[in-house]
Amino acid sequence: MADSYDYLFKFLIIGSAGVGKSCTLHQLLEKKFKEDSTHTIGVEFGSRIVHVGGKSVKLQIWDTAGQERFRSVTRSYYRGAAGAILVYDITSRESFNSLSNWLTDAKTLASPNIVIILCGNKKDLDAEREVTFLEASRFAQENEINFLESSALTGENVEDAFNKCAKTILTRIESGDINPETIGSGIQYGDPSLRRLRNARTPAPADPNSCKCG
Ligand SMILES: Nc1nc2c(ncn2[C@@H]2O[C@H](COP(=O)(O)OP(=O)(O)OP(=O)(O)O)[C@@H](O)[C@H]2O)c(=O)[nH]1
């Protein structure tokens, strides 16, 4: 029973090299800072169950390498992702300037309905800040994505980023905006009764024999 959940969502963590993607995942899974983080080679994987909106959701999280030389490998993991945590470093203007490219990749290579949360990491290094909260908020608004600043060092807002992403996906499933049964949705049912519930809510297609016209 320890591993039972209502839904499984495939998540990606993307963004330039050194912004703190692996440390963010480590903080989420271990609730502590990864002291000796080195560049990720290709992709790394982790999973965790979160509780949002009255449901338990298993997050299957792919932490991708930010270095350009791994781009062809990491791109192959985008397909069928339901959510992405797009990370930049608030002390690195360069990492902020690359966000548009990362967004384009996520929207074109993953699910068209992918829910993206923008995360300005290294919030603890405020004295070295190169990107203001306001300009990042504007970027997020223009691109219709949620935004928060986080710290993989202190843990501030790390869980919130993943929870916010999961919650948005759940809301969109419940409103009918996202259909988990679409191929490549990045969503699976953990509890089969949820599928039955959804199918019961979906109106049956019109029966052509019952047409009373003519
Ligand atoms: N002060 C501070 N340092 C951080 C934080 N997150 C990560 N770092 C440091 O930033 C460096 C890069 O962190 P990683 O998590 O390895 O970065 P990454 O984005 O996974 O890098 P790639 O695997 O190359 O894509 C490491 O030296 C971390 O110690 C943070 O929130 N605050």
General description of the model:
- The protein is globular, with a radius of gyration of 19 Å.
- It is built from seven helices and seven strands.
- Strands 1, 2, 3, 4, 5, 6 and 7 form a seven-stranded mixed sheet that branches.
- It has 214 residues and is an alpha/beta fold.
- The N and C termini lie far apart (57 Å).
- It has one domain (7-210): Rossmann fold (3-Layer(aba) Sandwich).
- Bound molecules: guanosine-5'-triphosphate.
- One of its GO terms (molecular function) is G protein activity.
- It catalyses: GTP + H2O = GDP + phosphate + H(+).
What does the secondary structure layout of this molecule look like, with pairings?
Layout (H helix, E strand, L loop, with lengths): L6 E8 L6 H10 L12 E10 L2 E10 L6 H5 L7 E7 L3 H5 L1 H11 L5 E7 L11 H10 L3 E4 L8 H17 L12 E3 L2 H10 L13
Parallel strand pairs: 1-3, 1-4, 4-5, 5-6
Antiparallel strand pairs: 1-7, 2-3
The structure holds guanosine-5'-triphosphate (GTP).
Guanosine-5'-triphosphate binds next to helix 1.
